[in-house]
Amino acid sequence: MVQCIRCGENREGMAFQPFQNDIGRRAYEQICGVCWGEWLKFQQQLINHYGLNLREQQAKDFLYRHMEEFLFGGGAGQGGSGEGAA
User: Fold this and answer.
1) How far apart are CA 21 and CA 25, in angstroms?
2) What CA dihedral angle connects 73, 49, 35 and 59, to 10 degrees?
């Protein structure tokens, strides 16, 4: 169980750490599974909308920035930021 910093609820966390980096560790420790699922849906929308190629580091960086905003920025990622494609 985690006290999710995005939704404020005490819910079950993720089954595993999604990335072996700082943001992955923070998400695993501070984000509930429900909010993580919401991020995954929004991430797919970003990938499709911007036509991101996840083999490119620029596309990965773009998603990490949006993930940070979506999960840790009070949910502001849902409205889109108007940034250009990766």
Assistant:
1) 6
2) -70
Domains contained in the chain, number:
1
pLDDT for the residue numbered 70: 97
Q: What's this model's pTM, rounded to 2 decimal places?
A: 0.81
**What's the pLDDT band for 79 if we cut at 50, 70, 90?**
very low
Mean predicted confidence (pLDDT) in 51-68: 96
- Domain hosting 58: range is 2-79
User: Is residue 84 assigned to a domain?
Assistant: no
Residue 16 has a pLDDT of 94
Per-residue CA distances from 53 to 49, 64, 65, 66 (Å): 12, 14, 16, 16
Tokens of 8: 């404020």
Count Cβ atoms within 10 A of the Cβ of residue 74 and give its class: 0-12 exposed, 13-18 middle, 19 or more buried: exposed
